[in-house]
Amino acid sequence: MYQLIKKCGDARLGEFTTVHGTVKTPGFMNVATVAAIKGGLSALDLKDVRCQVMLCNTYHLHVRTGDEKIKELGGLHAFTRWDGPILTDSGGFQVFSLASIRNIKEEGVVFQSHIDGRRIFMGPEESMRIQSNLGSTIAMAFDECVENPAKYDYAKLSCERTTRWLIRCKEEHERLNALRDTVNPHQLLFGINQGCTYNDLRIKHMEEIAKLDLDGYAIGGLAVGEPTEEMYRVISAVEPYMPKNKIRYLMGVGTPGNILESVKRGVDLFDCVMPSRNARHGHLFTRKGVINLNNAKYELDTRPVDESCGCPVCRNFSRAYLRHLTKAKEVLALRLCVMHNLWFYNTLMEDIRAALENDTFEDFYTRNVNLLDRRRTD
Amino acid sequence: MYQLIKKCGDARLGEFTTVHGTVKTPGFMNVATVAAIKGGLSALDLKDVRCQVMLCNTYHLHVRTGDEKIKELGGLHAFTRWDGPILTDSGGFQVFSLASIRNIKEEGVVFQSHIDGRRIFMGPEESMRIQSNLGSTIAMAFDECVENPAKYDYAKLSCERTTRWLIRCKEEHERLNALRDTVNPHQLLFGINQGCTYNDLRIKHMEEIAKLDLDGYAIGGLAVGEPTEEMYRVISAVEPYMPKNKIRYLMGVGTPGNILESVKRGVDLFDCVMPSRNARHGHLFTRKGVINLNNAKYELDTRPVDESCGCPVCRNFSRAYLRHLTKAKEVLALRLCVMHNLWFYNTLMEDIRAALENDTFEDFYTRNVNLLDRRRTD
Hints:
Number of strands of chain A: 16
Number of helices of chain A: 14
Strand order of the largest sheet of chain A: 4-5-6-10-11-12-13-14
Oligomer: homodimer
Strand content of chain A: 15-25%
């Protein structure tokens, strides 16, 4: 459960206790889509990059190897050997973004598997059952991810349906947790706020789902193409209506600058594929901005990516070696770049927490917010 | 330098001392083609899989990032951070197998880069200069790798040219080692025996190159498609003519069974891409035969790949998880499978050495030679 330790403006320092350990917040969750971090990192490596929470994708695990089989194998913790908290998404985002043919009804969504094309039905109950089988620490409610931009009328109808789906999720989740053979009887459930970029829909929806007294609340449907300022506006609009005693999770966000801006607006938890996706392109985060390893100037650069970084990559390898591996498209390039970027995100959160603890968050924010996302110049 | 500790039949237990550390033989070299092990293993990981020698490919490093740049960066040891012995091949094998257009003359070979198509000339002196720039512990002489099968007359002419090339290699190698700014002034040079599958050519060539008193001798041009029995026949034929006080390296070999057969015939050193190539297809070596992770029977198998294996993968992950990662084509599958297979090869060599030490090699050979390469049944 969430405990607020202190506030600096709207920014919150807190702790979130789960059956798999305590998460210090603000915190960043490391994405392990199919129960493996992209770039060849195992659960053992996650400890080395100071990860607190691993995030797995329900849809991907449902279609391959299958949640029922993973349940037989003891759930995601036994499967991956990660013993810290695991959050599973609802599957909704993938259903709405990956599946080519889909049909949304009150009961749920019919869509085709992107692997073998077979027809799959997923609704609130199915999503809860899959996540229960996976035995994650935190399950996410099944919601509709509306495309951006969306018409007001559709957004409103979708919001109302997402609320009805959430009620069904909660009911099914409680039933599953109480079953004798459930993998994790202490599984938590987070609700997801929707409403596109319409302040009034966001607020109304937040007020409704807050009544359900869930274990945490996420803001979904942002960072899907809208201007960043619009995202910040929505967060600021909805934040006053989020329960103070519950953890708040901004889904799929974002750049280091986005995270800093969102912490300032009261968000506690983040996830994003950016550390691994950018690593794939040789883009590395540093405290002085982003390095692009494809740049010829690093060819003979014997310095680490960031002299001030204590990650396993910067402690051992040069920019020149990483550039060489990147140009040669070696798997090792991907692994080392992902390791560095995840370490960067995880330790950025540590420093944000330290700044909150020491009452220097405003200063930390000012010094870093415009620096982190820009291109590094040395 | 090589020190023979003891013999069991023709099998030899020995030690090979280099400026970068001592190699216990029989030993297996781990292939890091472009200065990185396939599957995302770094030099740091090599220690964890009990690697003794890393092998890098001269041709690949010449065409990308370039040996002169790697020299500027301090050579391969500084570049990769591997501080043990490194062997570089001559580039010859890639020139003769990868390059589409080539033209062999007495001076050397003109061929096209497989990366950008540019014309490259490589002869004995060029190969020595590139390997000197890379600063490897052991350089290999530049030889012609004749296709199999080859006509006797061509094989004979090629052999004679390879001898002339070897003399030029030795001269250039000595000159380079004596230069003031050379990366590794203690670089060793191995000659390579050729002669296709013709015993008389093999023996004559071996006798000639033995006179040059090189730091070690390799048998090249085998395991290129000829029947295994023919390979063993050639090794047995040429072995009596190899200097007793020099290390013997069988290039590009092979399966665990091949290695055991070749140790029995007096070979000390091996390299092969098989541990990583087979890993890519989900084929894992164990002491009871080969496991194919694609086999459906492993889907719910919570056992490690091999209960008797102490590798980082078997200590942590199940067959079911590895199979899941393999089916999902996750990079992590590749990494974990390569780790296991390299550990298998490296510790197989440890056990061969222990058997030689304890005078139980014949027994070890008999128990294992037909077991290791076959399909595991449980």
